[in-house]
Amino acid sequence: MKVFIAFAHPESQLLNGALLRVTVEELEAQGHRVQVSDLYTMQWKSQVDRADFPHLPPDARLKVVYAPVEATASNRLTDDVKREQEKLLWADTVIFSSQFGGWACLQTSKADLTESIP
């Protein structure tokens, strides 16, 4: 089986990074082929803006709903997007690995929480 993992976590040395490494090792040990996109390491740009559509004339209005459809139909997607699409098409299975809620709540210390309780 061909497995593509999209990994999105700002710190790969924490639990999510360890889970990713174990997942890849286990899948490969079972004979599966694995590709990983570490979106933070790649500095993947998550927001959509004009830079994603360089073929668009400077004076044209960016219609975010239609621009990707037009770019796909005319084969004008940016190379980074094309590479990730190729991985998705290659894969039999896709795993999205991210956990923002868990690490975000750890930003508050226990002392911060208890100080706010009357």
TrEMBL record:
This is Flavodoxin-like fold domain-containing protein. Belongs to the NAD(P)H dehydrogenase (quinone) family. One of its GO terms (molecular function) is NAD(P)H dehydrogenase (quinone) activity. The keyword Oxidoreductase applies. Signal peptide: none annotated. Pfam families: Flavodoxin_2 (PF02525). It comes from the Eukaryota. GO terms for cellular component: cytosol. InterPro entries: Flavodoxin_fold (IPR003680), Flavoprotein-like_sf (IPR029039), NAD(P)H_dehydrogenase_qn (IPR051545).
